[in-house]
Amino acid sequence: MNTLSPFSSNAPLGKGVQVIVEDPQGLIALSKPVGVLSHPNQTGEEQRALIKAAYSLDEECFTYRNSKGEDERVWLLNRLDSATSGIILLARTEALAVSIRKHFKARKVKKIYAALVFGRPLKPKEVWQDRMSVTRQRGQIRTDSGAGHIPSEAHMQLVQTNTNANPIISLIQLDPKTGRSHQLRVQCRKHQLPIVGDATYGEFKLNRAYGKKTGRKRLFLHSFRTSFSYEWEGETHEFSAQAELPDAFNEALTS
Fold first, then answer.
1. For the domain bounded by 7-106, which CATH number is listed?
2. What is the pTM of this model?
3. Which CATH fold would you assign to the domain 112-221?
4. C-alpha triplet 177, 178, 182: angle, nearest 5°
5. Would you state the pLDDT for residue 2?
6. Half-sphere exposure at residue 52, Cβ-oriented, CA atoms within 13 angstroms
């Protein structure tokens, strides 16, 4: 059983980062705003990160001083691009981190994303099955749906369409069944529903016009809900966290 003091009272959280859930076993869900790094990639980026503290890339953990001046560590369980907002999970102990990472690897963690897209789906629900290629160029990951052999699947559901917007904008939920790099962004583009504000895989002209008209210049992709069950110390625990949609999403749907 976790006997550490509450994480939120000690950890130097990054700008706008909020604790959503902390369970008694030491599993934590944070809500990360757009623009915040999941972790610093190099020295000097700590102030832009999820937790403003030293980070070990090898151990995938942060080390920080608590209110008593003691060192504490917390392990990162998943990542989001800085341009994507939403849920990131942490563990207070290394043993718990090892256990939960196995759940991620086995695809036992259910993650639901929300995305604002240009256009409107032809059907309210669709199963997207595509094949992709993933390459790394000059340190940057690039994913392509035009060629490749990596199977990628996501379930799409329409939530709401703003027909007053010009062009029309829709809010969709995405349930990825595979975890390819940039998968959802690429699949949205492939299925003629480019994500608003996606500077890499989206529609440049639409993004520029939309940003100029509304002043909203972010990637409208948000990790909305995460849930799973896990075994720990002989018991089964249910974990669920939800990061509410940022105001910019709601504003886009009502204006």
1. 3.30.70
2. 0.93
3. Pseudouridine synthase (3.30.2350)
4. 120
5. 44
6. 9
